[in-house]
């Protein structure tokens, strides 16, 4: 770990506010590598990954312009655990390759106080070995349900389905180095981040 900024993995369940936490840390000077963004890059039109997906799931996952129909794929994936596993087998090795490359590049820079790897499926895909420490962002399940319904325009049943499709929050907490409960207000979250920043970023960075 010596000679490079700490790599902090940020994870947590859907609608817990991981991205808000990552954005706030970026505002303080951290550099964020976002696994969701990498996932979008690996399935861009014309990529070998998208071609593999079409072979497995059929052309119904494509829009008329040849791009991935995320909504259609999302419905298929959340409804069936086997389909989800098949998709993960195709895209996660590609995301892994890209994330390792990006994190390695950043590690050699001296001007970065903190490197963040934001990954919803950090533990599920065994990506915790790419980071030095893990922050799990948690949320009260009732608040999570309301946030998710409002954010994604989902019915209660649809939101519940997405929540139960994920690894249990408690299991993530058990593997975390830091836990941030994000059930409160934004002001409370910011206070907690100030404390965390002081804990993990050397003074003067």
Order of helices and strands: EHEHHHHEEHHHEH
Strand runs, count: 5
CATH superfamily: P-loop containing nucleotide triphosphate hydrolases
User: Low-confidence segments, ≥5 residues, pLDDT <50?
Assistant: none
* CATH fold field value: Rossmann fold
Shape: globular
Instruction: Order the strands across the largest sheet as they lie in space.
Output: 2-3-1-4-5
Mean pLDDT figure: 93
Assign a percent range to the helix content: 40-55%
- Report the sheet with the most strands, covering strand number, pairing sense and barrel closure: 5 strands, parallel
Strand content: 5-15%
Summarize the structure.
This protein is of the alpha/beta class and 205 residues long.
Any descriptors?
single chain; 205 residues; alpha/beta; Rossmann fold; five-stranded parallel beta sheet; 5 strands; globular
Question: How would you describe this protein?
Answer:
- The chain is 52% helix and 13% strand.
- The protein has helices at residues 18-27, 35-42, 48-57, 70-79, 81-107, 141-152, 156-164, 169-174, 186-200, and strands at residues 6-12, 31-34, 114-118, 133-138, 178-181.
- The protein has a single domain, classed as Rossmann fold.
- With 205 residues, it is an alpha/beta fold.
- The longest helix is centred in the middle third of the chain and has 27 residues, at 81-107.
- It is globular.
- It has nine helices and five strands; from the N terminus they run E-H-E-H-H-H-H-E-E-H-H-H-E-H.
Helices, strands, pairings?
Layout: E1 6-12, H1 18-27, E2 31-34, H2 35-42, H3 48-57, H4 70-79, H5 81-107, E3 114-118, E4 133-138, H6 141-152, H7 156-164, H8 169-174, E5 178-181, H9 186-200
Parallel strand pairs: 1-3, 1-4, 2-3, 4-5
Helix pairs in contact: 2-5, 3-5, 4-5, 6-7
């Amino acid at each position: 770990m010596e000679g490079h900024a700490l790599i902090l993995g940020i994870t947590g369940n859907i609608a817990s506010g991981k991205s808000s936490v990552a954005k706030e840390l970026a505002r303080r000077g951290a550099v964020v590598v976002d696994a969701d963004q990498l996932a979008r890059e690996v399935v861009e039109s014309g990529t070998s990954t998208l071609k593999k997906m079409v072979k497995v799931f059929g052309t119904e996952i494509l829009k008329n312009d040849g791009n991935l129909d995320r909504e259609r794929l999302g419905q298929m994936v959340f409804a069936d655990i086997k389909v989800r596993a098949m998709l993960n087998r195709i895209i996660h090795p590609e995301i892994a390759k890209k994330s390792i490359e990006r994190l390695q590049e950043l590690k050699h820079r001296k001007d970065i106080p903190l490197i963040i790897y934001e990954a919803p499926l950090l533990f599920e895909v065994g990506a915790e070995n790419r980071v030095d420490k893990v922050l799990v962002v948690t949320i009260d399940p009732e608040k999570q349900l309301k946030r998710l319904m409002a954010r994604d325009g989902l019915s209660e049943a649809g939101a519940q389905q997405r929540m139960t499709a994920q690894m249990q929050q408690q299991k993530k907490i058990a593997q975390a180095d830091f836990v941030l409960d994000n059930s409160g207000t934004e002001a409370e979250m910011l206070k907690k981040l100030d404390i965390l920043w002081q804990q993990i970023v050397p003074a003067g960075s």
